[in-house]
Every structure is written in C-alpha cells, then in structure tokens.
Amino acid sequence: MQVIHDMTDTERARPDAVHSEGDTDLELVQFWARVVACLGGCLALIPIFYASQIHLEMGWQIFTEQGMALALGLALGIIFIKSPFRPGVVKRTVPIWDIALAAIGLGAGAYLAIRFPVLQDELFELRPEAAAIGFVLIPLTVEAIRRTAGWSLTAIMLVFIAYAILGHHVPGMLQASENSLEYLTSSLTADSVAILGLPLTIVVIVVLPFVFFGQLLLKGGASEWLTSIATALIGRQRGGSAKIAVIASGMFGAISGTAVSNVASTGLITIPLMKRGGYEPKVAGAFEAVASTGGQIMPPIMGAAAFLMAEILEISYTEVVIAAIIPALLYYVAVFIYADLEAAKKNILPVPSELIPAIWSTFKEGWFFILPFVVLVYALFSLNRPPETAALWSGATVVVMNWIFGHKGRRMRVFAIISAVRDTGVRGGSEIVVIGAMAGVIIGILGATGLGEALTQALVRLGEGNLAVLLALTAVICIILGMGMPTTAIYLLVSIIAAPPLIQLGINPLAAHMYVFYFGIVSLITPPVAIAAFVAANLAGAGPMATAVTAVRLGWTALVVPVMFIMSPNLIMQGAPLDVAFAFVTAVAGVWVTTCGIQGYFRRPLSVVMRIAFMAGGLMLLIPAEAFAAAIYVEAAGFVITVAAVGREILAVRRAAAADG
d(Cα 402, Cα 415) in Å, to the nearest integer? Predict the structure, then answer.
C-alpha cells in the first residue's frame, strides 16, 4: 500500500520500524502524496531558477534571500506532511495538527520571501514584524530537524538557542552579550548572515542541483550500469565481489551526497553479491558502508562538500579537488588491500563466471553515462562555470544521451524527469534545507552573542599548551556533531564550530577544514551511532555493532591520514612537487603494510609479533618527512622495520614451499 512517508535513513537501519501512525484512507494518502510531490517539485525548481539566471536575463530584482525563505517554507511544508511525529513509525495519514504546521511553515516562508526587501531596508522600525516571523520559523525548524535528523542534532540547536537567551548569565570568558529576545529573533530572521545566510544559500543553490543530477543518473540506470561495469572489470579477481562494491558504491556515493541513502540503494545489489562470494555478513555490510562513506571524500564532487569548502574558504574549487586526491586514494587503497587479503585469508573465490557480464557489451549498454561527468569536469575546470550551472548542464546531458541511446533499450521518459525533480525536493532535499537553516541560526547566534570568538579563544588556549590534545578533542567533537547527517550538513556544522580554532593556531586553513570534514564523515561508520554501518548491517543480516567495528578497521585511514596532513600539508598537495610525490609514495607503502598488520595476513597469517611490526613500520612510513624536525628519521626507521618484516615473511613462505616439495 502506498504511504505518504518515505522511511528515513535512521528508520531503514531499524528492522522494527514498522509501526504505523494513524488509520489509512487510500484516497487521502494519494492526495497528500500529490501535495508532497508538488511541494518537492517547487523546491527543486528554486535552484534550477537561480542556476539558469533567468531573473538576471529578465532584469528582475530578486534578492537571493527571498528564494531561500521560500525554499525553507516549502521544506517545512514537505517535512510536516510526510514525516511522522514519533520516530520509527510509518506515516499513513496526515493529522490535522501536521496540516496546520505545514501550512504555517509554508505561509511564514512565503511571507518572509515577499517582505524581505522591506525588512532588510527598515529592520530597525520593523523589528517586531521580523521577530514575529522568527517566532514561527525557528521553532518549526527545530521540530522539523527533530523529525528528520533525530534528537542529537536537535539538542545541539536547542543548546545554542538557550545560550542565546540565557548566555549573559554564564560566568567567565564564555559569557554572552545580553540582547532582548525581540532583537535576537529579528536578527536571526531578517539578517542575511543568519537563517537565510550562507549555509542555506549554498545548500539550495549549489547542493540541490547535484542532488538533481544524481536523481537523473539514478532514474536513467547509471547505478545499475556502474555495478555491471565493475563486475565485468574485476569480478574474476580474488575478492572480486567486495572490490565491485567498493568501486560501484564509491563512485555513486560521491554523487548522492549521503552515504546512508547510497548504502540503502546500491547495498541491495552489492551486499548479497559479497555474501554469495563467501564474505561474512558483517564484513559484507562493512565493505558497503565504508565504500559509500568514502564516496563523500572522493573528488571531484565529494558529495557536494567540495563546493561548500571552496565558498567558505574563498579559494578556487580546483584547489579543493586537488587537495582531496591523495587522502581519497589512500582511503580506497586500504579498502582494496583489505578486500584482497580477506579473500586470501578466507579462500574466497572470484565472482561466479555466470554472474560476470561481458565487458564490451556491458560498456556499450551505458558508455554514454561517462559523458555527463566529462561535461561536469569541462564546465568546472575549463569554462570556470559555477558549480550549480555545471550540475545542470551535466543533468541535461544525462537526459539527452539517455533519449538518444537508452540503457538496455529503455529511454528516459518525461515522467522520469518529473520524478527526478520531485524526488530532489522530497527525498533528502527538504531535510538538507532545514539543516542549512539550522546552521545559519547557529552562525547568527555565534555572532550575536560573541560565543564564536570566545569558543575559539578557549580552544586556542588549550591548543597552545598541547596541540595533540586539541586535535583529539576536535576529532571527538566532529564525530559527535556528524552523527547520522548528510555530507553537506556534516561539513557545514563542523566548519562553523571546529575549524576556526585550528586555523587560529596557524594550521593551514585548507588542512584544518579537511581535518574536521574527515572526522565528521567518519562518524557514519564509527560507534556508537554509525548509521551507515547500521543500515548496511540490516541489509546484510549482521549485528549492527559488529559491522560498525569491522567498518572502522576497513576505513582506518580516515582516522589517521587527517592527522598526517595537519602535521604536513604535503598529503593535500600543499608543498613542492617532489615533497608531495615522496610523501604519496611512502604513504601508499605505509597504508599497504599497516593494512596487512590490521588484517593479520600477508602471504600467510601473521603472528601477534609480526602484526605489531607491520603496523609499526607502516604507520611510521605514513608520517610525512616534513611533519616535524626528526620525522625523516622516524620514516627511515619505518622503512627498515617494514623491509625486515616483509622480507622475513617472504623468506618464511619460500622455505615452507620448498619444504613441501
């Protein structure tokens, strides 16, 4: 039976989330489904409108904030209609109070969109009006976040709001400036650096076009083709089923912008394939979770976070992409090596030949899916087009190529395009919008109360005494803040709170932002709330915590490499070419050897002593030579330990083979 509510990522992770909210009336369900689809389509059209720059061509004077206010109103309307009041239930009807909340949210957003130019010019005189709008929008945003992102993010927002109201009673350096409730609320509502500020603007104008691009690829069959081409390429290798999952999920995860949704979609194909190949359920789930999470750090899109980082740091998008290449490669090198070693250790055979398609026929079925990415890269790097424009061009390329060639004889119909527009707003788009609004509220509070500067100074003082303690504390903060959120929302939050203290201590700004981004993303596979691993565990029929622990072992480089590029930015290509090349080569060797130690297998099972030797030598090789004064000697010692350990194992295997004749 059709339902209004598409289950959230958190609910997919819960096998018991089958309760219903309200009685079902099929006609009412269909009516509200159409309402949600209409609102979602309108939300998706806002970034398309701005990206096409129609208003500039027509000479219309439209503030960007007006579009953001309307987008927020539409997102609130969608969420209150489709999302249940209680988490873990399937919403089968819309209670009268949710209809009222949806109408109020939509009306308040539309009213703010219309009145924003006047409020902007005459805020001093019209402060009561702006405050009245804020008293509606801010509580509704809090409730919308509770319904979609859960209590962890809601609690963070409530703490900031409470601080804005009561912070002047806090003693010491964290004491806030005292402001009236009317002043605070009106500033958070009508100021262009608060709820309608940069986070919401980037989410709506930059991120949603990429969500739309991903939806078009999904409707056109690109996900299926990527899995098939990966199977054809490496299915005959040892551990081929896991390597297929890594390639397919990683590539599509970079576009989808949310690791959890990617697990829920591609995992339906890759996890059963791995289990049939011989991987344990928890290992199969871990590979899918780690591959999908890694897609969020993979250039050139990085789940759209690359564009956010470029905007916030005010640097070129190209610089961000170049910086992300080596860390992403090290991440996937470790995962591939682990897959291969696991197959050797457990004697896992390649994918059965009857399941491997012919490479040439598979390529011919969907070769045109490569062209949208060519258009994307060309528009971004050669034509220097804005990201949102490049995304629209790439989406148009998907449609045109699919119309001309079709995938497996199926061409994209008009309804599929309409469905992609609808799903852009309904499935994930509305949730990202309210999180962007929340990030804007937090930025506004940090500025209005002085908390931003005070918090930065407090962490800087801590870091002056011990940088390692600050890095560890920052990593923990980012993991907590990132629990269960989409990629762009994770980065927005950690860049606001966790990055400034690192930068103020003299750390390379790009390295600082990459550091907090990595640890925000790794929260998706790190207990206690490893939501990507939990979803994969549900699909694999494995224990959630066991899958999460295995995922941390697979994705260990995401916990170590960020520390390395903080110590020396060579690993994010911030240095002389020879230094960067040397750091990359030694890092790859270090990742290979360390992964062998973690797995406990090289060419045969490793003893405890040899595992320690492999891990010690590998981690020492990972340290860039420019990290600190004696780093080159540490790296040299790591090289000696690695050569000795690897050489000993090779000789032992040869002697054993000779003894066996």
Answer: 14
pLDDT in tens, 527-542: 766 778 887 888 888 8
Give the tens place of pLDDT for each residue, 342-386.
888 888 777 777 777 888 888 888 888 889 888 888 887 788 788
Q: What is the pLDDT of residue 101?
A: 93
What's the token pair of residue 538?
């549900």
Q: Is 122 helix (H, G, I), strand (E, B) or coil?
A: coil
Q: How confident is the model at residue 5 (pLDDT cuts 50, 70, 90)?
A: very low
> Helix or strand or coil: residue 526?
coil
* Among candidate residues 369, 394, 414, the one where a domain is terminated: 414
SS3 of residue 605 by DSSP: strand
Asked if residue 27 is part of any domain, the answer here is: no
- Considering the domain boundaries, does residue 596 fall inside one? yes
Q: What percent of the chain has pLDDT over 90?
A: 16
Cα 245 to Cα 103: distance, rounded to the nearest angstrom: 43
Per the structure, the complete domain to which residue 606 belongs is given by 575-661
SS3 content of the chain, % helix, strand, coil (to 5): 80, 0, 20
What total of structural domains would you count in the chain?
A: 2
The reply to whether 456 falls in a domain is no
Greatest Cα pair distance, the chain, in angstroms, is: 94
Q: Any idea of the CA torsion for 438, 264, 304, 484, to the nearest 10 degrees?
A: 30
Tokens of 606: 């490793």
For position 70, what pLDDT does the model report? 94
Q: What is the pLDDT of residues 230-277, one digit of tens each?
A: 778 777 777 777 887 787 777 776 666 667 767 876 787 788 878 877
- Do the domain assignments include residue 616? yes
Which of 390, 414, 438 delimits the end of a domain?
A: 414
- Supply the pTM of this predicted model: 0.73
Contacts 24+ apart (CB under 8 A), 541-550: 541/281, 542/280, 542/281, 542/282, 542/284, 542/285, 543/282, 544/13, 546/282, 547/281, 547/282, 547/285, 547/286, 547/289, 548/286, 548/289, 550/282, 550/283, 550/285, 550/286
Residue 348 sits at the vertex; the CA angle it makes with 344 and 353, to the nearest 5 degrees, is 125
Tokens of 222: 């690109």
DSSP H or E segment with residue 564: helix 557-567
Q: Are the CB atoms for 286 and 551 separated by under 8 Å? A: yes
Contact 380, 300 (CB under 8 A): yes
The β-bridge partners of 407 are: 410
pLDDT in tens, 643-652: 999 999 899 8
How many other C-beta atoms lie within 10 A of the C-beta of residue 29?
A: 18
